[in-house]
Amino acid sequence: MLSKKMISLLSEQVKNEFESAYLYLIAADYFHSEGLPGFASWYINHSKEEVEHAMIFYDYIHRNNERVQFFNLEPTRTIYSSLTKPLEDTIVHEDFITTCINQIYEVAAKEKDYRTTNFLTWFITEQQEEEENAHANMNKLNLFGNNPAGLYLLDKEMGNRYGKHNKGE
Ligand SMILES: [Fe+2]
Ligand SMILES: [Fe+2]
């Protein structure tokens, strides 16, 4: 069983993960508009992963015979005008998500809700990867994105790291 507080926290995380999906989709939209289909593809695929994360929380709540509480999404309304800004935003956002997961874990541990601490272990590991990816993308852009040839090749590489979502393919 889940405490009322835990249902609320887990439900809020459903919202947070959908906000993550939205953030990555906004970045993809910007990269498409900049003629960088590889970057756009990476961010679309990552957006889908975030929806999967939201659904893992959704399923966990239902497997415990409870219902999800729905909150209003508060997606960023940033209109991007530089390639680095969406990457900076995802770094900040992934740090925020890590903090959220840690906070839920802390409450679960205090409540001796070991089922939920166990459930959250996957997300703790996942957040390590999420932060690494966010920083890696920024590092690569800083290293190779300053000239057109480097940016072209980097965009190709980004497009190959997930499946295809490139325009026209
Ligand atoms: Fe996530
Ligand atoms: Fe994420």
Task: Describe the structure concisely.
76% of the residues lie in helices and 0% in strands. It is mostly helical.
Report what the structure shows.
With 169 residues, the protein is mainly alpha-helical. It has a single domain (4-160), classed as Ferritin (Up-down Bundle). The chain is 76% helix and 0% strand. The chain is built from 5 helices and no strands. The protein has helices spanning 4-33, 37-63, 84-110, 114-144, 148-160. Helix 3 (84-110) runs antiparallel to helix 4. The N and C termini lie far apart (47 Å). The model is unreliable at 165-169 (pLDDT under 50). The structure holds fe (ii) ion (FE2) (2 copies). One fe (ii) ion (FE2) is lined by residues 17, 20, 50, 53, 97. Residues 17, 20, 50, 53, 97 line the site of one fe (ii) ion (FE2).
Write a concise keyword list for the protein shown above.
169 residues, binds fe (ii) ion, mainly alpha, Ferritin, disordered C terminus
Q: Rg from C-alpha positions?
A: 18 Å
Q: How many H/I helical runs?
A: 5
CATH architecture: Up-down Bundle
Main sheet makeup: none
By CATH reckoning, the class would read Mainly Alpha
Instruction: Please give the alpha-carbon distance between the first and last residues.
Output: 47 Å
Structural class: mainly alpha
Overall body shape? elongated
What is the name of the CATH superfamily? Ferritin, core subunit, four-helix bundle
**Which stretches are low in confidence, meaning pLDDT under 50 for 5 or more residues running?**
165-169
**How many structural domains can be distinguished in the coordinates?**
1
Beta-strand percent range: under 5%
Order of SSEs, N→C? HHHHH
In which range does the helix fraction lie? over 70%
